[in-house]
Design brief:
Layout: H1 7-22, E1 27-28, H2 30-38, H3 44-51, H4 56-73, E2 97-98, H5 100-115, H6 123-131, H7 137-144, H8 149-155
Parallel strand pairs: 1-2
Helix pairs in contact: 1-2, 2-4, 2-5, 2-6, 4-7, 5-6
């Protein structure tokens, strides 16, 4: 499937795996894809993210807030986990496998590209796919950032 991804989208997917590994996660999830998108160079998708105020710092802050609220909802007071000092693939840490939420983003990105008549999957398709999530971390993070899915679609035009 990755042969249909542009080089930039392939780099985003690789970066998402690195983000997950750095955080000590055993799986790559949708939030890691979103964070990877915030770390890319100047292109239309990064400009759309900047227009929306979705910097890496803002997204990480929203993720921490969402994590804290989720714990409080079940009566646990805790601070969000911090990434460890080890680099991806080191210290015996296995490479994270693809989690369900990230797999769904990849499948949705393909569907978005096909629906729009595009032959290649680009970063913008990944971002739109993320915005289509109806449950999980991503919709709650977008609400925390006060961003509607339609805002993302408009910013990408």
């Amino acid at each position: 499937m990755f042969e249909r991804f542009t080089r930039s989208a392939q780099a985003t997917v690789k970066r998402a795996r690195d983000v997950a590994a750095t955080a000590g996660s055993s799986t790559v999830e949708a939030q890691h894809v979103l964070l990877a998108l915030t770390q890319q160079a100047d292109d239309p998708t990064s400009r759309a993210l900047a227009t929306l105020g979705m910097s890496e710092r803002a997204v990480r802050g929203a993720l921490e807030e969402e994590f804290t609220q989720a714990l409080q909802a079940v009566g646990v007071a805790a601070t969000p986990p911090r990434p460890g000092p080890s680099a991806p693939g080191r210290a015996g840490r296995p490479t994270p496998r693809w989690g369900q939420s990230a797999k769904l983003v990849l499948v949705r990105a393909l569907q978005v590209a096909v629906d729009r008549g595009h032959k290649r999957i680009e970063d913008r398709h990944l971002l739109i796919a993320l915005s289509l999530a109806e449950a999980g971390v991503i919709p709650r993070v977008l609400r925390t950032l006060d961003i509607a899915p339609t805002d993302i679609d408009i910013a990408l035009r």
